Amino acid sequence: MNVAAPQTLTLRRIMPEHNAAIASVIRQVSAEYGLTADKGYTVADPNLDELYQLYSQPGAAYWVVEQDGQVVGGGGVAPLGCSEPDICELQKMYFLPSARGQGLAKKLALMALDYAREQGFRHCYLETTEFLREAIGLYEHLGFEHISEPLGCTGHVDCEVRMLKAL
């Protein structure tokens, strides 16, 4: 009888050495769901290969999930550009299939929301697409409410699902 070895999962703040791995995860998951750069999704972000630098800015934080030493997901929070100073954005929540269904996205999102509260944000905004039904369900479960108009200037023009949560 073969018994699978337990997997080691680690949730940690992003470091420079995670840049290439998390960019690869985001590209893989985007391709899986047909989220292409020409549509303005995350894969079009010019800073995708430099997330450590991006999330080292004031009020921002990003976490990666490692499974047996390999980056399998991540997510973060940052001030919402071109908007009210008390609104942050939940950003770049992507997980490989091997990391899904284990509660990691919920745990990471809750950490990000706690961090946002500590930074003094009063609301958290996010944008996603109907293609990511599982993610939308998680966000609804966490208390995000659907709103009709986009906030800020995210550049993600094809993200037709917009949600907001009071912190």
Automatic annotation (TrEMBL):
Residue ranges occupied by any N-acetyltransferase domain in the UniProt entry: 9-167
Coiled coil segments of this chain: none
CDD domains in the cross-refs: NAT_SF
Keyword Transferase found: yes
Protein keywords: Transferase
InterPro entries membership: Acyl_CoA_acyltransferase, GNAT_dom, NAT_camello-type
Taxonomic superkingdom: Bacteria
Record-given protein name: GNAT family N-acetyltransferase
Protein species of origin: Pseudocitrobacter cyperus
